[in-house]
Amino acid sequence: MSEILGVAVCDECSARIRVPPKYKNLVGKSIRCPRCHNRFRLTLELPTNSDTVAVETEHAEQKTRNQRIKRRRTKTEIRDEHVEEARRGFRALHSRLRTIADAPRASEEQIRIWCVDVLKTALGYSDESLDTECRVMGGRVDIAIKEGDLVKLVIECKNIRSKLRRSVREQAGVYAATLSAPWAVVTNGDIWKLYRVTPQPGRSPQMDLVFDVALLDEDGISEVDPEILYLLSSRALTSGDTEDEFHRVKFTSMRGVYKALFSSRVTNALRLQLVEQYKATADENVNLQADEATNALHALLTPLEFGS
């Protein structure tokens, strides 16, 4: 067999040592037994059937280990699997949500129960991580998502016909800040809004909208919706995907982009580009000042201005 040259037997402990080809140069020399550590002269015997089976078994096990390493999933593949789980879960429960919406009388409790089922079916939560009896400030959080004793996210559920007005968002934010939870959701089953909650001493917490999704619009559960709703999943909150999305939304906001446009780096680049552009088309050198480039940019974006 090609995997070993033969078998050596220790004179002291009779251990059978399979000798691979890479140790060919040690044949006839004194070596130390790997079992009893005594030295003996390495001579080869033909392998028995048991030796052959043992080598083949080790080879098969190593091949399996190598295949497992090769099949190790990437972060993107893992994320895609969880998105697909969210897609299946939300679509499976969508008709039930439609039934609630079409009923002449629908209660807030129906939505809360539906949301609990969504969290378990589509978003990967266990019963132990969902607390529907969490008390705070004399009230009860509809759903608190916990990791151990820590509250990670609070969900405020309202009737399917609720407009989810500002007071609902503020209530969820105060509950979240009081419980030191960084995330809050307000939902009527149809509309889902996720907020990043930042406490502000002596003031109401800051609420930054991360996403706003509708499940009962014309396209129902679209291809994009589960990718967004995945951010509510246990995996997304734990892996940091939700946090990453919050920062992406934050730094690409209209206010952030507007501020970047009027930074000295951008306005100076604009000034140089305008000078070069005019030189190329009119063959004239114009001495354009930085404030002139800034004013030109302001004139272009006047309809979008909303302050610094």
Description:
The chain has helices at 49-70, 75-102, 108-121, 166-178, 225-229, 234-239, 241-251, 254-261, 264-282, 290-301, and strands at 6-9, 16-19, 30-32, 39-41, 130-131, 135-136, 139-140, 143-147, 150-157, 183-187, 191-200, 203-214. The longest helix is centred in the N-terminal third of the chain and has 28 residues, at 75-102. The model has no long low-confidence stretch (mean pLDDT 89). The strands form 4 sheets. The chain has a 6-stranded mixed sheet, sandwiched between helices. A two-stranded antiparallel sheet has the order 1-2. The chain is flat. With 308 residues, the protein is an alpha+beta fold.
Calculate Rg over CA atoms.
33 Å
Order of helices and strands: EEEEHHHEEEEEHEEEHHHHHH
| Main β sheet profile | 6 strands, mixed
Number of helices: 10
- Helix fraction bin: 40-55%
Strands of the widest sheet, in order across it, are: 5-8-9-10-11-12
Mean pLDDT: 89
Itemize the secondary structure elements and their pairings.
Blueprint (H helix, E strand, L loop, with lengths): L5 E4 L6 E4 L10 E3 L6 E3 L7 H22 L4 H28 L5 H14 L8 E2 L3 E2 L2 E2 L2 E5 L2 E8 L8 H13 L4 E5 L3 E10 L2 E12 L10 H5 L4 H6 L1 H11 L2 H8 L2 H19 L7 H12 L7
Parallel strand pairs: 9-10
Antiparallel strand pairs: 1-2, 3-4, 5-8, 6-7, 8-9, 10-11, 11-12
Which features characterize this protein?
alpha+beta; two-stranded antiparallel sheet; flat; 19% strand; 308 residues; single chain
